[in-house]
């Protein structure tokens, strides 16, 4: 079999995708022109030349400043709509998309612009593409817990449009417990919970233990350092916890894809699946991540099919809707 054709054709859910990480240089230029913003880089190649990441911090230093071209609800719609069309081509039938409202409210863009633009694209995807699309609100962990709580309060009027909450940005000195109260309140409001446990961070395994045992998350983003603690792996397996891994992203923010860890969890029967994280920056959408992992780790069609099944089983689709896919 041609593994690329197989990977693209495989119906899959994408569960770890930052909408702000789908901003391609071409759309960045279009939005900058629309909003009268002058950009330092004048060509796509010049923009791509700045994608010289060695770790999470150096990635985030390029990622956040790029967002200033996003201002109106239409801009947010156009960003998400471009991604959703691309996702359809990659075999995605369901997606749970992260968005970072504080990356916008912190520079004066109203929360309403962000959520209404993204929501409109999600509805349009259902109607025009047959792709089911949901939103997960992420708090930026390098801001305060108070700002996260205020953001949660701002989101409550839009609760019906938001499936769950997550935690992203720089993990160093910002452990999960910093947000224990915010996540307890989010859970009480009916949101599902996930948190990033980025690869090879200081105290990674302790943070993974805390998100499972203290926060009580419904899923973990990245989190493959869990292989360091077999007892914790056993617990994650017993609970059916999903791990949203991102092989190509891993190769940018660390020096490796972390294929051994991903495959080890897959073989143990843990619910791992493959996602793209920030595809515009890492140069690979979700099917391309399946192909990269398959080529690197020698996986065949049966393994890729298992990853795709895991993507539905770890999704936050209701059981009735999940049945349509697995
Ligand atoms: N924001 C966007 N991508 C991220 C990642 N991989 N880790 C943490 N924060 C992020
Ligand atoms: Zn991420």
TrEMBL record:
GO molecular function, one term: adenine deaminase activity
Domain spans labelled Adenosine deaminase: 11-326
Gene3D superfamilies in alphabetical order: Metal-dependent hydrolases
Alphabetic keyword roster: Hydrolase, Metal-binding, Nucleotide metabolism, Zinc
Amino-acid positions noted as binding substrate in the UniProt annotation, renumbered to this chain: 278
Cofactor remark from the record: Binds 1 zinc ion per subunit.
PANTHER family reported for this sequence: ADENINE DEAMINASE, ADENOSINE DEAMINASE DOMAIN-CONTAINING PROTEIN
Organism: Microbacterium trichothecenolyticum
Database matches in HAMAP family: Adenine_deaminase (MF_01962)
Cofactors that this protein relies on: Zn(2+)
Entry EC number(s): 3.5.4.2
Pfam families: A_deaminase (PF00962)
Functional summary from the UniProt entry: Catalyzes the hydrolytic deamination of adenine to hypoxanthine. Plays an important role in the purine salvage pathway and in nitrogen catabolism.
Binding site for Zn(2+): 16, 18, 196, 277
Protein name in the entry: Adenine deaminase
């Amino acid at each position: 079999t041609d593994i690329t054709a197989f990977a693209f054709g495989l119906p899959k859910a994408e569960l770890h995708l930052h909408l702000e990480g789908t901003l391609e240089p071409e759309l960045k230029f279009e939005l900058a022109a629309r909003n009268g913003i002058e950009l330092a880089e004048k060509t796509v190649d010049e923009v791509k030349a700045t994608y010289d990441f060695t770790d999470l911090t150096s990635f985030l230093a390029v990622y956040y400043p790029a967002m200033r071209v996003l201002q109106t609800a239409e801009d947010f719609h156009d960003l998400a709509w471009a991604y959703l069309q691309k996702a359809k081509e990659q075999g995605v039938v369901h997606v749970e998309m992260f968005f970072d409202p504080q990356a916008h409210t912190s520079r004066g863009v109203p929360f309403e612009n962000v959520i209404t633009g993204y929501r409109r694209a999600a509805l349009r995807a259902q109607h025009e593409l047959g792709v089911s699309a949901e939103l997960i609100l992420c708090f930026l962990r390098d801001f305060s817990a108070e700002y996260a709580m205020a953001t949660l309060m701002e989101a409550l009027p839009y609760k019906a449009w938001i499936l769950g909450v997550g935690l992203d940005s720089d993990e160093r000195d910002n452990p999960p417990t910093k947000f224990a109260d915010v996540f307890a309140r989010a859970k009480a409001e009916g949101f599902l919970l996930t948190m990033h446990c980025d690869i090879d961070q200081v105290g990674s395994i302790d943070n993974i233990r805390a998100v499972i045992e203290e926060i009580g998350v419904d899923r973990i983003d990245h989190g493959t350092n869990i292989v360091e603690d077999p007892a914790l792996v056993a617990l994650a397996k017993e609970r059916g916890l999903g791990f949203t891994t991102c092989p190509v992203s891993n190769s940018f923010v660390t020096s490796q894809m972390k294929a051994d860890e991903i495959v080890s969890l897959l073989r143990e029967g843990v619910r791992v699946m493959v996602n793209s994280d920030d595809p515009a920056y890492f140069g690979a959408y979700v099917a391309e991540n399946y192909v990269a992992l398959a080529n690197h780790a020698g996986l065949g069609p049966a393994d890729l099919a298992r990853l795709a099944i895991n993507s539905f089983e770890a999704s936050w689709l209701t059981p009735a809707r999940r049945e349509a896919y697995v």
